[in-house]
Write a structure and sequence with these properties.
It is built from 14 helices and 17 strands. By secondary structure, it is an alpha/beta fold. Strands 3-4-2-1-5-9-10-8 form an 8-stranded mixed β-sheet, sandwiched between helices. Strands 13-11-14-15-17 form a 5-stranded mixed β-sheet, with helices on both faces. Helix 3 packs across helix 4. The longest helix is centred in the N-terminal third of the chain and has 23 residues. The two termini are 25 Å apart.
Length: 367
Amino acid sequence: MSLKNSKIIVVKIGSSLIVDNNKKIRKKWLLSFAKDIKNLKSNNQQVVIVSSGAIALGCKKMNYSKSGLKLDKSQAIASIGQIELMNLFSETFSKYKLNISQILLTLEDTEERRRSINAKRTFENLFQLNYIPIVNENDTIATSEIKFGDNDRLASRVAQITNADTLVLLSDVDGLYTKNPKNFKDAKLIRNISNIKKDLKNVVIRGRTEFGSGGMDTKIEAARICNLAGCNMVIANGLYLNPINQIEKKNSTWFISEVPKLDARKKWIISSVSPKGELIIDDGAKKALINGKSLLAAGIKKVNGDFKKGDHIKILDNKRKEFARGLSSFSSNEINKILGCHSNEINKILGYVSKSEVVHKDDMVKI
């Protein structure tokens, strides 16, 4: 695989690539990274950078330890560090005459359709102005309940919003291995993955690991979001100088999307990282969904979670396996009253006129 044919590229870099273990800024690396971005821009490729580092730089400036920071304190530190981070990018990128801008996003900015469209327009206008958007999660206002939790999934959402062709995750390892390469000498690098479920069947990765703040599992989740949006993703070692230029020369893992790009609405639905609830359906309803039908109340067996009309929800089959995602036409309270009932009974049960489909086929994406 190659980046040459990608018109829009999203690059995610972690804080460890900007600040080393001794809290020193890796200026030489950052300058080499800027040169790589200059090369991409010279090829008429649009670039978005998703960067961590605000809290790390804030801690450096205030001489604080990042470990043990409470949420409210980390928000303040992020506010201080955000200026340091953007000044660092501005100073470095200006040496290659690259213009940068800043975009701060929260989970809600990508989960709510209207905000998502507004963000997309901002990216498009910045591309036209020949500016490079630098994106970070808005740590200064994000709470623990609405945070992405890691910038891998944030980057995948940015890739989806911008309709990117490739997402580059720069990590501290060469890619995804069959086992932890630091503990097992027989661990093998997986170079290409075209079917996540099939190709990773025998690869078990759980929880937070040394692979990064979110772990390799969050990188796989990011790949799933990208691939369903028709976007390729590569995990590559970012510790080298000129890390983008090194991708084709060094080892890496490519997640190759083999699905056509979904329409914008369905891409937004499938990319939700925070569904509000679940509907468990029977085999008859599952068969109907496979045949392109909407989900009706009669086929619902159970409701999990507390959600409102219009919220993202998961649809699980009889074996509790996720089958689809969609936007609910009813609240969880309403569905609990009508589940198992025929559509012509809904108005009588609820006492007011409503839709007959719990999740309309146009608001649903099968996984």
